[in-house]
């Protein structure tokens, strides 16, 4: 029997545990399979069956998902078709990716909740804008990988012909990289707050559509991709979640990752995590932002912690028997 209640301050009443889930790339696309809409829908189905189990166990969840491969492909398709139809700006491609992925999660989550006997819980995707700082130094230093993988030779051609910034991505090939400013404010946060108690909300897809506030107060999209783990940490922080659950491909975070002396970690304090960051154990653009997001959230309030694990281990990880927990020192 899963226990998913936390004590309130008077220690007598219990309240449901609030969890913000950040879904990584493998929750949306299966490695080695063609990136078709049908394949994404099937992968999302498997993911949602696991997420529905969290809901059935009584956890209150909101879902944030990535969009790196998807937004890159939408952008590429739009740029490639510029002779027949005007190319869409980056922020619009981000919005399209939220709609397409959110639609699949909504549909699959509905089915999965039905199977768990919880068809009374509504699911909705919020097209979410996230305010960023126009002076964020990230705009001068593109480092978020998006889209498909290329060989080194193809990357050289794209650099020359299209002016893209290209970078090797964690031993997996070469990818286009774009600016990834920090999330400052979730514009639609008030909507999440009003829906939280009744509805499973999918929000901040792809980290949210990055926008800046103009002098007259209106919002304008900017060409960038926010890191979804940092956006999920922001959501979790502001909604007062108990746990930030970051789901990715690996069961646990490791030091000396990929080396013969790799050591998987059951837990680490924020201070230990910072030492490991300084020692370079976490790859930028992959594990590093997850650990940073976990530390940021854990530090944001008493009794909060983060867990990084795989989809398959999600339920056990919330119980504290799997994954890597990022905890306060005391
Ligand atoms: N220290 C580490 N411990 C575990 N995994 C790591 C580490 N450093 C890099 N990685 C890699 O980071 C990957 C997760 O990042 P990524 O695939 O970008 O995330 P996402 O699931 O959000 O798409 C893991 O699958 C693993 O290959
Ligand atoms: N926006 C974002 O962080 O996407 P990925 O997780 O797919 O890289």
TrEMBL record:
InterPro entries: AceGlu_kinase-like_sf, Asp/Glu/Uridylate_kinase, Carb_kinase. It catalyses: hydrogencarbonate + NH4(+) + ATP = carbamoyl phosphate + ADP + H2O + H(+). Pfam families: AA_kinase. The keyword Kinase applies. It comes from Hominifimenecus microfluidus. Transmembrane segments: none annotated. One of its GO terms (molecular function) is carbamate kinase activity. GO terms for cellular component: cytosol. This is Carbamate kinase. Keywords: Arginine metabolism, Kinase, Transferase. Pathway: Metabolic intermediate metabolism; carbamoyl phosphate degradation; CO(2) and NH(3) from carbamoyl phosphate: step 1/1. Belongs to the carbamate kinase family. One of its GO terms (biological process) is L-arginine deiminase pathway. Residues 18-309 form the Aspartate/glutamate/uridylate kinase domain. The keyword Kinase applies.
